[in-house]
Amino acid sequence: xxxxxxxxxxxxxxIIPVESAQRAISYLGELGLVQxxxxxxxxxxxxxxxxxxxxxxxxxxxxxxxxxDQISKAGLMISALPALQPNIDLEELEVQLGEHESxxxxxxxxxxxxxxxxxxxLEFKLVLLKAGGFLVSAHNHSASSAMELDxxxxxxSCCMLFSCKLILLAPSYLKNVFxxxxxxxxxxxxxxxxxxxxxxxxxxxALKFERMLFRATRGNMFFHQAPAGAHVRDHxxxxxxxxxxxxxxxxxxQAKTKILRICDSFDAxxxxxxxxxxxxxxxxxxxxxxxxxxxxxxxxGIRHRNTTLSSIGCQLWRWTLMVKKDKAIYxxxxxxxxxxxxxxxVGEGWCPTFAKPQIKDALQRATVDSNSQVGIIFHxxxxxxxxxxxxxxxxFTHAFQEIVDAxxxxxxxEANPAVFSVIxxxxxxxxxxxxxxxxxxxxxxxxxxxxxxxxxxxxxxxSFMEMAFGGRYVILLMALFSIYCGLIYNEFFSVPFHIFxxxxxxxxxxxxxxxxxxxxxxxxxxxxxxxxxxxxGSRSELPFLNSxxxxxxxxxxxxxxxxxxxxxxxxxxFHGNSLDIRYQFVPQMIFLNxxxxxxxxxxxxxxxxxxxxxxxxxxxxxxxxxxxxxxxNQLFWGQKALQILLLLMAIAAVPWMLFPKPFILKRLxxxxxxxxxxxxxxTSDADLDIEPDSAREHHDDFNFxxxxxxxxxxxxxxxxxxxxxxxxxxxxxxxxxxxxxxxxVFYEKILLLAWRYNSIIIRITGLAVFAFATAxxxxxxxxxxxxxxxxxxxxxxxMNKFYHGDGYKFRPFSFVSIAEEEx
Length: 823
Known about the structure:
Elements: E1 9-17, H1 21-31, E2 35-37, H2 51-73, H3 90-147, H4 155-165, H5 171-184, E3 194-202, H6 206-216, E4 221-227, E5 232-233, E6 240-241, E7 243-251, H7 253-265, E8 269-270, H8 277-333, E9 337-338, E10 344-352, H9 356-369, E11 377-381, H10 398-407, H11 418-433, H12 436-451, H13 453-457, H14 463-470, H15 472-489, E12 505-507, E13 520-522, H16 541-574, H17 578-609, H18 615-624, H19 639-658, H20 660-674, H21 678-682, H22 704-728, H23 731-755, H24 760-798, H25 815-820
Antiparallel strand pairs: 1-10, 1-11, 2-10, 3-7, 3-8, 4-7, 5-6, 9-10, 12-13
């Protein structure tokens, strides 16, 4: 397995007899190493051979989703480990699923009918209890009012008084008046008598309902309501809602018709209530008896339904996987074509070269198991299109490969940046995040994810945990490198420690009164590892750390950019492209190192010699006045002559990158059509690695102006990018300084400030605030910030030197990936 290059791929053709086609595709799905090419891409899904089988699998998938929804609604669990039952084929499974669906639909229909009847009886009971109370109290009140009135009162005068004062009367009094009129005039005809309608309505609609009744009857009604006293299941939404019992008193047949229509429009259920108390009690007892019987029937139905769903749930996962596999098999068979005899299926696709023996063995087993008289033909073909890219990864390298693939999938056999990103990515993160206290916290989090790897891998995680679990080994390396860089910076939650021996500095006087003003003096050998702890708190701490981290960022940036250009050389050499080596790699190396490689050399020389030279002045006047005497800024003998030579080489490298390659490509194209070097051109070094978006991809469409413009853009991009990319690496210095200073602020202004007080409450509060700020700001926000900046440095500054990233992934037909997919 070559991690730097993708696996070698072979374009293969399969000729499969019809009787063994399904089994052969099934075995290849279990193997998961063949990516089939769609030979029927000009046909719609409904024009393909196995469309009926795909429809059947789709219908079975619908039934399985129906079972899953029913199990979820019932509050049951789907077993991940199915019960052991004999294997069944697709036809038997289809019959079983149909029977289970019919049984469940019938049970659901019966349950809905029983539930609806139960709800209606429950509402009827509530109406009887509430509305019956209204009627009894109304009769009693009307009887007492009648005894107080004069026996010779004239009915017609009462009616006139009522019609004149109707709007001014209170609702409770209106009810008494209506009852009083009915009581004193019993011989009134039924059509002109006082009637009532009782029912139940949603509490949220009661107020609108009352207003509508008042307007429709022009106030000739009396509306009385009361809470139902219990939640009732709504027949539309199926949820438990609050309802209100109402009684509407009215007079006349026309008013009754209007009220009933309004009840229908407001989804109010009306129920008849006897006026006599004895009849009310009798009806209530009958309704209560029916309710208890329905409760028993509903409970029995629910138990039977849950038993059926539990038996289905034990096999649901296995059935779902089986249907998914069969549907995937028929989808793959639809990508194959029939041969002329209509007895064999012809398929084409890609497979890794190392997998050819395994594929042949699987096809041989399919032939034997299907009792086919004709074997399956498997042979390698030549392909015109570019092969897919396939990197074999494990749990450790998978996350790093995904980081690279998020930028773009590598071309076939192109150098893989993930090999180097395994080290460079967490290291650049640690340069910005360096604190071995924070690194230990990240290490504990990574170890917790790794130790629970098997348990978490079998669970359904949310998006954040899934991302963290997938990158657990990335977090592990980031933590280890953060500890390493933290030891170099000598920071443990911003506090330095004398880990590697005593400091090399001491105070000028015995009392150290001038340590922060005059400074320290060196009296022994330098500190053995990392930054001397005595720099912390001194007056020169910030200038020293700024200089150190800024120069270190430039060195790391120049080294990584040189690595990227060096990889472009190995890529060109691997593909035999001598043009890219001579006219791309060489001038790029010269230009980058003549300027920024020289700057890195000056930094190293200054560190080694302890010179006080101003590197800003040296680099600026290298361009503005290259012949000027360096004076105190000279670091070594011959520096001036070397600067002039490097400047001339950098200037010469620009036209070297721009002009030769397009003209050489034009000459090769011209010679091809003159017939002189046609055979050589097809296998020439220059023709094996084609530039992206280049017209040389098709010789007949060669366009010199397009090739020249592309090369000019590429050259300008590199020249400008060399400056901007080097400056971009200064983010290592900026984020490292920001992380260190932020950690110092939290330590000094929160923790130490709280510790100055003798109150235990203030100390605990300060510790809690410090822990919260460290966890959520430094360990979460700063981690994410450093991660994104390290990602940017790899995608833009490093990978654009050699990586094209315009390939496509190898996506084999595999049952493993199908099982992981969700509907």
